[in-house]
Amino acid sequence: MRDKKGEEKIDKILERFLKRKGFLKKINEFKSKDLWLKVVGDDIASNTQPLEVRDGILFIKTANPILSNELLYLKKEIMGKINKEIGTKTIRDIHFKVGG
């Protein structure tokens, strides 16, 4: 995007550079872990932990199998909210794992 003088904005230049070098995907994956709390809220976040994102799959540790099952029903909604916040389809699936 260029301003009135025809100069390109630094954020657009940086975004293109990061995308070309393959860093933008990793940055967006990292952001998705940080967005977990915002998207699911305090109650769910206090009983879950985002572990990692690998190949577009967000791995979440849950406190118990009942919560994992409930989150399966909300998975598409959660992915949609995360991807909307990031501005691109970064998360294509979420896997829930019961942990201690």
Write up this protein.
This protein has one domain: DnaA, N-terminal domain (GMP Synthetase, Chain A, domain 3). The chain is of the alpha+beta class. The protein has three helices and three strands. A hairpin with a 2-residue loop joins strand 1 and strand 2. It is elongated. The N and C termini lie far apart (48 Å). A three-stranded mixed β-sheet has the order 1-2-3, covered by helices on one side. The model has no long low-confidence stretch (mean pLDDT 88). Helices cover 57% and strands 19% of the residues.
* Strand element count: 3
Mean pLDDT across every amino acid position: 88
Q: Helicity level, as a percent range?
A: 55-70%
Shape: elongated
Q: Which structural class do you get from the secondary structure elements?
A: alpha+beta
Biggest sheet: strand arrangement: 1-2-3
N-end to C-end Cα span: 48 Å
Give me the number of helical elements.
3
Number of domains: 1
Radius of gyration: 16 Å
Can you write the helix and strand succession as a string?
A: HHEEHE
